[in-house]
Design brief:
The chain is of the alpha/beta class. The chain is about 40% helix and about 15% strand. The chain has ten helices and eight strands. An eight-stranded mixed beta sheet has the order 1-2-4-3-5-6-7-8, sandwiched between helices. α1 crosses α2 and α4 crosses α5. The chain is globular, with a radius of gyration of 18 Å. The two termini are about 30 Å apart.
Length: about 300
């Protein structure tokens, strides 16, 4: 547990180190906001053999960390400051510190890099566009028209009447959206770490920031857009996209093109959780990036 100072007092956040490599230390930022590190457990099947030291970390409000009930804490800048305090406590620095973020974690990693890139050796942004308005537009223009339109109408009706806690709402999203774009497996075959992590989602963080649905963002993050700031990030950066993701892979490719020291890695069979449903492709690209940056830095 690492102490983190916030405007509302000091709290503890949970981390767990696996492996030992003085040159490659990878801090994992999970999605959500308000999810947990658990859905990233497939990393255990790949990174130890690759000689990577990595850190699981539950952000403040998530499962193993303190869970203060204060909406004022759920702001991007406060989370960025938390990551910086965790980095300092773990002794990570520009000689060894790789920051990985998936989904919301990718947004947070991008924000961290814009504020503190002097501390980074490398950056990985996975399954996260640089613009939430563009993400919402992609969902409306490309993904929703592919759905069963009767199901989509029912989903939108449940959202309009505030019934997102209705089990029918989650059932519709799972059947008509999640199994196509979040994790491309039948719902009853989703790996246990994924369902466990999702069951631990802190909705008091997730819904104010993201909104209730993966069909688009409607919370505090709705207008977030860092597209114009990408050229300011000069550290080596890997952007990972997937063909069937909720995030537009063409947008992720264009993000990489705007970064001065970048590469883009595409998972042709993957979705939002490409580290699960296109696992070999995903981790081969991630591990290659870590070792290449280490070799040439």
């Amino acid at each position: 547990m690492i102490p983190v100072d916030t405007p509302k007092g000091r709290f503890g956040v949970w981390t767990k180190r696996i492996g030992n490599n003085p040159r490659i230390k990878l801090l994992l930022l999970h999605g959500g906001p308000g999810a947990t590190h658990e859905y990233l457990e497939p990393f255990d099947s790949w990174l130890p053999a690759a000689g990577v030291e990595y850190y699981y970390y539950d952000q403040l409000g998530s499962l193993h960390s303190d869970q203060p009930d204060d909406p004022d804490l759920w702001e991007i800048d406060r989370f960025v400051d938390e990551v910086e305090q965790v980095r300092t406590a773990l002794g990570l620095n520009r000689d060894n510190f790789f920051l990985y973020g998936q989904s919301w974690g990718g947004l947070l990693a991008l924000e961290y890099a814009l504020a503190h890139q002097q501390n980074l050796k490398g950056l990985i942004i996975s399954n996260m566009m640089a613009s939430v308005p563009d993400y919402n537009e992609y969902a409306a223009r490309v993904l929703m028209p592919q759905m069963d339109q009767d199901a989509l109408a029912e989903i939108k009706q449940l959202e309009a009447t505030g019934e997102t806690e209705n089990p029918r709402y989650e059932e519709l999203l799972m059947q008509h959206y999640y199994v196509h774009h979040v994790l491309r497996l039948p719902a009853d075959e989703w790996p246990e770490p994924i369902t466990r992590s999702f069951s631990h989602l802190n909705r008091s963080i997730y819904e104010p920031m993201q909104g209730p649905s993966e069909l688009g963002a409607s919370g505090k993050l709705e207008h977030w857009d860092r597209s114009a700031d990408l050229p300011r990030i000069h550290v080596p950066t890997l952007v990972i996209g997937a063909e069937h993701d909720t995030m537009d892979p063409a947008h992720l490719q264009s993000m990489a093109n705007q970064l001065p020291d970048r590469r883009y890695h595409h998972c042709p069979n993957g979705s939002h959780l490409a580290h699960v449903d296109d696992q070999q492709t995903y981790f081969e690209g991630l591990v290659r990036f870590l070792h290449d940056v280490d070799q040439y830095s």
